[in-house]
Amino acid sequence: MTPQTDLGDFDEFESLQDEITGFSSLGIRPGLRRISRLLSLLGDPQNQVPAIQILGTNGKGSTAATMETLLRFGLRTSLYTSPHLVSLQERLRVDGRYLPIDVWRSAWRRVMDTVARDAELDADKPSFFEHFTAVCMLMTHEAEADIAILEAGMGGRCDATSTCAPMAVMINPIGIDHMQYLGSTIEEIAGEKFAAAKAGADAFYAGDDSALTRLFHEYCERAGARPHILDSMARPIDIKCTLDKTCFSYAAVREIGGAREIAGLQTPLLGPHQASNATRAITVLLSMKEKYDMFSFISPDSIRESLKHTDWPGRLEVFPTAGGPSVILDGAHNEHAMRALVSSINSLTGGGEKIKIAATVLAIMSDKGIPPMLDALSALKCPVYCAELPMERATRAEELADMCHKAGIGIAGFFPDPYEALKAALYEAEQDELVLCCGSLYLAGHIRRILKYN
C-alpha cells in the first residue's frame, strides 16, 4: 500500500461512489440500528481504535483537520470527514495521506458481502453514509491507526459516527441547519448534537451561546459525561490574518496540560474564526494530555511546529491565476458560515493592504436559509455572478439572481455553468483584486477541481 499525498484515480473513485450509491437505500435515514448491526458483523472496527468525535454546525471540518495535524506529530492518525469537495478519496486520510483505490475497493467488497449475506440488512439496506462510514472504520482499523478523528456527518445522536465509544466528543458552534432532520429550533438542533456525549467520556462544547451552554450541561449530566466549556478555558489573542496564514497566540485561563500561553502560532487556514477553531482543538488535546499518556508528546513546541502544516481545502482557499486576479474558494453554506466568511474577508490583508473583492460567484442549495445568507453577503458590497450547480437540490441561477436583487445586491449576471460565471467575473476584475466563490461546498468543489486538476 502506497498512500498518496494528493488525489488521483478520479474516474475510479467516481465509479466506486456510484457502486456504493446503487447498493444503498436512498436518502438520509437517521438511526443507528443498521450501521450498528453492520459494524458488529464486521467485528466492531469502530471500537478497535481510540477516537475523538467532532460535531457542530460550522467549523467542525477545519477543527478536525487541525486536531489531526496536531496529533500526527506523535501518533499514527486517521481523519474521517464529509462531504468531499472533489473526490470520495478525500474523506479518509491516514497520517495525512490518501489511500489508493485498491484499498478502498477491498474494504467495500467486505462491507457489501457482509450486507448481502445478512438477511436483515439485505432486506433493509444501510444508507450511503452508513455504508461509507463502515468502509472507513474498517480501513482505519486495518491501517493500524493509533487514533481516529471522526467528523459527524449530521447531528450527533443518530449519526453513524456515534457508533464508536469516543475518548472525547467536541462540539463546535451550533446554528440552524438540516431542520428537516434535526428540529425546528436551535435548542432541538443542539440537543441532537449534545446527545452524542457518552458516559465516562469527556465532552467539550465551544460555549459561544450561553443558553445552549446550560442545555449542554443538562445533556452531559444525563449521560454521565464530563463537561468542559472551551471558550471559558482559553482564547486566541493577537490575531493577524494575511492571504497566506493566520497568526495568533494561545492564552488559557489556567495551565492546561503543562501550557498556559503559547506565542507565535500560525495556521495556513485563513480568518479569525480559524484562530478560534485552532484554540479549541489545542485546548481539547491539552486537556486530554492531563488524563492519557498517549498524548504526552503534546507540547507548546509540537503545537507550534505541527499547526503550520494544517491542510483543509475549500475554506478561504486562495488560487492565483496566471497573470490575472486570484480566486478565493469558500464553502460557506449557511448564515453562520457566511457571516464568518464576510468577517474574515474584511480582516485579510495582502501586501500590507486590505484585500479587495471585485465580485462574488454564488451558488446555493435550495434547502438552505437563503435570505439570511444574502443579508450577510450584502456587506461585501460587490456585484454577484449567480450560478447553479448540476444537482436537483441547487437553486436555479435566475431564481437566485432575483433573490439577490430583493436583498439589495447588485447582479452582474446569472449562469447555468459555475465556471462560465467565474470566467466572466475574472474578465471584469483588476489584476490586484480577488474573485470570491461561495455559497456551497459543492460549488467550492466544482471550481476547485477545475482550478487544481484540469
Q: Kindly state the number of beta strands.
A: 19
Largest sheet: 8 strands, mixed
How does the overall form come out from the CA principal axes? globular
CATH architecture of the largest domain: 3-Layer(aba) Sandwich
Report the β-strand fraction as a percent range.
15-25%
Structural class: alpha/beta
The poorly predicted ranges are none
Total domain count: 2
Question: How much is the average pLDDT?
Answer: 93
Provide the CATH topology of the largest domain.
UDP-N-acetylmuramoyl-L-alanine:D-glutamate ligase
- Rounded radius of gyration (Å): 21 Å
Q: What is the spatial order of strands in the main beta sheet?
A: 4-3-2-5-1-6-7-8
Helical content stands at 25-40%
CATH class of the largest domain: Alpha Beta
Gap between N and C termini: 26 Å
Helix segment count? 16
- The CATH homologous superfamily of the largest domain is called Mur-like, catalytic domain
What secondary-structure arrangement, pairings included, does this model have?
Blueprint: H1 10-23, H2 33-41, E1 51-55, H3 60-72, E2 77-80, E3 92-94, E4 97-98, H4 101-117, H5 119-123, H6 128-142, E5 147-151, E6 168-171, H7 179-182, H8 186-194, E7 202-205, H9 210-223, E8 226-229, E9 234-241, E10 246-256, E11 259-267, H10 272-289, H11 300-307, E12 317-319, E13 326-329, H12 335-347, E14 349-350, E15 353-354, E16 357-362, H13 370-377, E17 384-387, H14 397-406, E18 411-415, H15 418-428, E19 434-438, H16 441-453
Parallel strand pairs: 1-5, 1-6, 2-5, 6-7, 7-8, 13-19, 16-17, 16-19, 17-18
Antiparallel strand pairs: 2-3, 3-4, 9-10, 10-11, 12-13, 14-15
Helix pairs in contact: 1-4, 2-6, 3-10, 3-11, 4-6, 8-9, 12-13
